[in-house]
C-alpha cells in the first residue's frame, strides 16, 4: 500500500486538534506526495504515539510541530517536535524499552505505561524505518522517523 506521509500527518493533526485544545498544533509538509510503502493505519498509530507523548510532556499552551520531508540521505521522514520537559541524556537510550518511564514522567499525574514508544518502534522496525531522537531537558524533544526506501 502506498502511504502519503503528508496526508497521514494531516489526519493525525486534525484528530489532535479535536482531542487536545490545550496545545497549538502546526503541520509543515515540505514536499507534496511524499510516498512510502507500508500499512497506513499502523504508521498512523506510531505517529499518534509520538504526538500523544508530545502533548503529555508539554505544558499547556505549548507548540507541537508535525513535519514531513526528505532528509540529507534522501530518506522520507516525519517528525514530532515539542516544547516539553525533554529527556535526559541518561534516559534517551532507554525510551524505546518496554515499561521504561523517566523519573519526571513516572511522578506525573498523567498516566502512561511506558509501552507507547516500544509499540511505535515495533511498527517502524517492520517498515524498515529508523528513529532519531533530539532532546534538551527543559527545552523540548524532537523525534524523527525515517524510511530508507
Ligand atoms: P504510554 O505507554 O502511555 O505512552 P509513556 O509515555 O510513559 O506511556 P512511552 O511512550 O513508551 O511511555 O515513553 C517512554 C518514556 O519516554 C516516557 O515515560 C518519558 O519518560 C519519555 N518520553 C517519551 N516521549 C517524550 C517527550 N516527548 N518528552 C519527554 N519525555 C518523553
UniProtKB/TrEMBL annotation:
From the entire protein, which fragment is shown? 292 to 440 of 440
Q: Where is the Histidine kinase domain?
A: 1-149
Residue ranges annotated as coiled coil are none
What is the organism of origin for this protein? Zhenpiania hominis
- The name on file for this protein is histidine kinase
- Spell out the subcellular localization from the entry: Membrane
